[in-house]
Amino acid sequence: MTEDTIAAIATPLGEGGIAVIRISGPRAVDIAESVFRSKVKLTKAESHTVHYGHVVSPATGERIEEALATVMRAPRSYTAEDVVEVSCHGGIVSVKKVLDAILDRGARLAEPGEFTKRAFLNGRIDLAQAEAVIDLIRSKSDRAFTIALKQAEGVLSRRVKALRHVLIETMAHIEVNIDYPEHDVEELTNAFIREKCEAALEEIETMLRTAEEGKLLREGIETAIVGKPNVGKSSLLNALAQDNRAIVTDIPGTTRDVIEEYVTVGGIPLKLLDTAGIRETSDVVERIGVERSRSAIASADLILFVVNGHEELSEEENALMDELAGRQTIVIVNKMDLEPKIDWNALYERVPEERVVRLSAREGEGLDRLGKAIGALFFSGSIESSDITYVSNVRHIHLLKQAKGALLEALDGVAAQMPIDMVQIDVRRAWEQLGEMIGDAVSDSLIDQIFSQFCLGK
Ligand code: GDP
User: Taking the chain, what is the end-to-end CA distance rounded to the nearest angstrom?
Assistant: First the structure.
């Protein structure tokens, strides 16, 4: 695999300040040296140094580009091989010329993802880390980027490895018992297996839960803002959209609605449903009441039920509150800048206190409390906490679910006093599935499929 030396353009094609051509493999420095003239010969250059010079045509020796060459020697490089990165002017013609010169000297054009694949095959990163590199490149939000970065650094891999360690211990224990099957040992072994499998199961379940939470953080919680006319729904919408407002110009039409569909509260993204409906209802007060919100309510993950704290709750509002009892609902008591007239006792009889948030949409006061209340409803830990690993990759989620299934079977087996070597098979299966997450014993075709999702030059 690492016998040949590969090269590719690592930056997007097009006009730009600079473009980078990356070369990796045993002959990377030799090949770069043969097309590059600089004060210090690249073959003599120390690792991690940058050299100014000119790229020359292999055929005629004439200068074709002015460039900087960075030398990074194995194993301290992205691929863990010798790497040279040539930075030249960012034009389509210039990069093409430099790349051609390098290919002329015997480098092979890299396939998409081949640099990262080499990092994996050379053992510098595992599969979960390599996959995180794709997520890093593709991430569209700060939060998604942070999750991917942690995974690329190996946070997820370490957790999976710790889990596998528990399972391998269990398997070793079972092995001993299979070899020396004495009755009293068997009892002890069963207790041991049960304890270990339960611990592993709990850890997997935690990881799967964060997967759900990770999805909410990436895609936003689908949220309906409901309430009767004039309670302050549009005002709340405006207050929530304040941050986004900065980038919204006065373009007429729908632009504003589209942008205001997403807001974040205390770092939690909300995807607001039927924002147009909310704006309409405030214009046509009489026409539409709570009914308007029915369809939004039906599909929402979170319902923000706005009431006016400056007046008594109506029959209609009380009825809707009862109806929403089983749903993820937060009652927002708005207009708290005015004198409260709401009957708090009656409210708290219907809704638990932690689901009631007092705020003033007009003053923009109390939004932080709203963020906290939503966080408590949807997230097990603090979402700012840095040691949460969010499993976000579909392949990983699938493997975790399979490992969970295998462990449940192992536990069933123990409970039913199945022969211990049968239980062993289930534990091994869980161990193998977790191994696939980090690329232990995965097939070549899976590896190819994963790396083909990369862009050229990565
Ligand atoms: P909607 O019909 O539920 O969308 O309600 P609006 O957001 O249009 O607000 C109705 C009226 O209540 C407007 O006159 C707002 O200025 C006022 N309002 C909204 N929120 C507050 C608040 O927090 N305090 C006070 N004092 N007035 C508010």
Answer: 17
Rounded Cα gap, residues 25 and 8, in angstroms: 12
CA angle 327, 377, 303 (to 5 degrees): 40
Residue (of 267, 251, 184, 162) closest to 218 by Cα position = 267
Report the residue among 362, 369, 370 best suited for mutation to probe ligand 1: largest number of ligand atoms under 8 A from its CB: 362
What pLDDT is stored for residue 211 in this prediction?
83
- CATH code of the region 129-210+391-438: 1.20.120.430
At 55, list the tokens. Answer: 């790229």
The domain ranges of the chain are 6-125, 129-210+391-438, 217-378
Nearest residue (by CA) to ligand 1, atom 9, is 232
For residue 334, which atom of ligand 1 is closest to its CA?
23
The answer, yes or no, to whether residue 33 has pLDDT greater than 90, is: yes
Three-state DSSP state, 134: helix
Look at residue 73 in the predicted model and tell me its pLDDT. 97
Ligand 1 neighbourhood includes 292 CB (under 6 angstroms): no
pLDDT of residue 14: 83
6-125 placed in CATH 3.30.1360.120: yes
Contacts for 250 with CB less than 8 Å, ≥ 6 apart: none
Give tens-digit pLDDT for 399-426: 999 999 999 999 999 999 898 889 999 9
For the Cβ of 309 lying below 6 angstroms from any atom of ligand 1, the answer is: no
Q: How far is the CA of 235 from the centre of ligand 1 (A)?
A: 6
If you measure from the C-alpha of residue 299 to the centroid of ligand 1, how many angstroms do you get, rounded to a whole number? 26
Q: By three-state DSSP, how is residue 40 classified?
A: coil
Rounded Cα–Cα distance for residues 85 and 54 (Å): 13
